[in-house]
C-alpha cells in the first residue's frame, strides 16, 4: 500500500491534518485511486493524463499480443472492437475496472471476455509483462514525481523526519505555516526544489533508455505554483 496522504492521515492524524486535500490539486482527498486520476493544475503535467496514456498503451500492447497468440477458437473480426470497448479501458471518467488494473487486478469482465477465446494460462502470460510494465511506469512517472513533491510539501507544513518517525501520539505542532493553506504555500516549494533537483536527477530512474523528462519535471514544480497563486 502506497502511503498516500489519506493513509498518513489515518495513521498519524496528529501530524497530517484531516482537512488537508491532495497537495497537487487541492481538490480531493489523496487516496490511492486519486493518485492516478489527479487532475493537477497543468494538463500536460497531470497524473491523470499520464495514467490515460499508459492505460491506452497497455491496451495496445495486450491487444497486439492476443491477436498474435494462438486462440482456442477462431477470433471473429469483431474481436478488436470488442476488446478495445471493454470498460476497463474507460478512464474518462475512470471506471472501477480501470482502477482495478491500476491495483494490479485483472477485471472479471475482461477475463471472462478473453476466456471465450484463450486459455487462462495464455491470458495470464500475456498480461504478465505488460501489466508489470504498466505498474512500473505508474510508479516512476506518477508516484516518484509526486513523492518528491510531497516531501517538500511536508517540509513547508513544518513536518520533519523526526516527527514522522516518532511513535508518540498527538503533540502540539507549532510552525509558522500551520495556519496557511497548502495552496498558498506552494510558491515556497519552487526554491526548495531547486536545491534538491540535481540529487533527484542523479538518484532516479532510467526507464526504457531515456530519462524522465527533467525539463518537464522542473517546470511542473516551478511553473505550477505561480499559476496556482492566481486562483
Ligand atoms: Zn490531486
TrEMBL record:
Protein name stated in the entry: Uncharacterized protein
Organism this protein belongs to: Rhizophagus irregularis (strain DAOM 197198w)
Amino acid at each position: 500500500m502506497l502511503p498516500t496522504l489519506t493513509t498518513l492521515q489515518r495513521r498519524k492524524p496528529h501530524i497530517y491534518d484531516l482537512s488537508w486535500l491532495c497537495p497537487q490539486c487541492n481538490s480531493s482527498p489523496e487516496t490511492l485511486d486519486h493518485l492516478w486520476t489527479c487532475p493537477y493544475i497543468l494538463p500536460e503535467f497531470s497524473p491523470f493524463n499520464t495514467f490515460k496514456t499508459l492505460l491506452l498503451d497497455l491496451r495496445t500492447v495486450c491487444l497486439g499480443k492476443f491477436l498474435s497468440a494462438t486462440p482456442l477458437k477462431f477470433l471473429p473480426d469483431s474481436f478488436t472492437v470488442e476488446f478495445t470497448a471493454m470498460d476497463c479501458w474507460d478512464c474518462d471518467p475512470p471506471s472501477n475496472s480501470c482502477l482495478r488494473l491500476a491495483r494490479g487486478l485483472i477485471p472479471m469482465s475482461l477475463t471472462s471476455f478473453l476466456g471465450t477465446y484463450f486459455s487462462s494460462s495464455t491470458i495470464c502470460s500475456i498480461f504478465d509483462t505488460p501489466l508489470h510494465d504498466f505498474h512500473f511506469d505508474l510508479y516512476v512517472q506518477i508516484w516518484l514525481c509526486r513523492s518528491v513533491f510531497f516531501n517538500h510539501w511536508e517540509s513547508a507544513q513544518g513536518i520533519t523526519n523526526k516527527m514522522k518517525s516518532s511513535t508518540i501520539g498527538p503533540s502540539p505542532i507549532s510552525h509558522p505555516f500551520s495556519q496557511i493553506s497548502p495552496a498558498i504555500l506552494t510558491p515556497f516549494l519552487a526554491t526548495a526544489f531547486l536545491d534538491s533537483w540535481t540529487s533527484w536527477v542523479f538518484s532516479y530512474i532510467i526507464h526504457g533508455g531515456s530519462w524522465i523528462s527533467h525539463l518537464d519535471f522542473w517546470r511542473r514544480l516551478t511553473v505550477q505554483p505561480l499559476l496556482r497563486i492566481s486562483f
